[in-house]
Amino acid sequence: MKVHLRVPATTANLGPGFDSLGLALNLYIELVMSSGNDTDSVELLGEMDGIGTEPSNNLIMRASSLVFERARKRPEGLMLKIFNSIPIGKGLGSSASAIVAGMFAANRLIGDPFTRDELMDMAADMEGHPDNVVPAVVGGLTASMISGGKVYYHRLDPGSDLKIVVAVPDFDLPTKTARAVLPEQISRTDFIDGIQKTSFLLMGLIIRDYSNIKMALEKILFQEIRSTFIPGYSKIVEKACEAGALGVTLSGAGPSLAAFTLVNESEICHAMSQAFKLEGIESRCYILSPETEGVSFIDRRSAMI
Ligand code: HSE
Fold it and tell me: Between β-strands 21-34 and 283-288, what pairing exists: parallel, antiparallel or unpaired?
């Protein structure tokens, strides 16, 4: 038995929408999971840092095990073939995409005992927050909340003219570290500021009016605190906006920066890379589009692996 699927990368928070807003991007992890092999094994191509090549420490294997345990059905001799294009530990939701890939493949392999929403709840629980998991499952732009341990969300297809230019620096910022520095409590002023910016941003994205989005993406308490981990953060934002970006935000917990734009993608890429370089930091740049499809099963003809 063999299952083949792909899951998109995601950018979470979109500035003020902490642990709620997320957007699927056209960069993917692709997985073939098969059972009935001699032993459990993992074969990895593409981005690999920290993904774990041993079956026991591989995130996809661990996520699939949770599904098998809950279903009380564990196939023997599980083989994973993974082709990953999502930079790991850079704020593009690689762990959420890996968890989603593992859980959805495992579920299909044993005859779909769980619904999509049940798998989404399990994945958000394993990941710790829903903002990457939800767009990885359903694609598009999503707003999610958790109530009573369950994930609820709305999604829409964002404007297809919108591009997301992501600058990925060559250092890691573990989400755990980026969350540990955030205060337990915030002031009323910061609370109101967050609500205003999230509402303004979301409404702008819905009606496709991107004016003043820049202001909704900056001077956000949590982002200000986190940006101290990124040398030259303000300068990189400034340079991207000078090159034509509508606004720039930390991608998820960082350290990547995501610039939203309708024009000049290459110039923005160049400006961000140069600004990183001035800080002595090498970076990679991706010009991405919103992905409207979430996790999707692939037939043999269109397969890459
Ligand atoms: N919302 C999460 C955070 C995303 O910012 O910590 C982490 O990928």
Answer: unpaired
Cα(30)–Cα(264) distance, integer angstroms: 30
Closest atom of ligand 1 to 253 CA is: 5
Predicted TM-score (pTM) of the model is: 0.94
Whether 116 contacts 100, CB under 8 Å? no
CB–CB of 8/291 below 8 Å? Answer: yes
For ligand 1, whether the C-beta of 132 sits within 6 Å is yes
Cα separation, 224 vs 40, in Å, equals 44
Cβ(70) to ligand 1 under 6 A? no
Ligand 1 close to Cβ of residue 128 (< 6 A): no
One digit per residue, the tens of pLDDT, for the chain of length 305 reads: 899 999 999 999 999 999 999 999 999 999 999 999 888 889 888 766 666 667 777 899 999 999 999 999 999 999 999 999 999 999 999 999 999 999 999 999 999 999 999 999 999 999 999 999 999 999 999 999 999 989 999 999 998 899 999 999 999 999 999 999 999 999 999 999 999 999 999 999 999 999 999 999 999 999 999 999 999 999 999 999 999 999 999 999 999 999 999 999 999 999 999 999 999 999 999 999 999 999 999 976 555 55
Whole-number Å distance, alpha carbon 78 to ligand 1 midpoint, is 31
CA angle 131, 133, 138 (to 5 degrees): 100
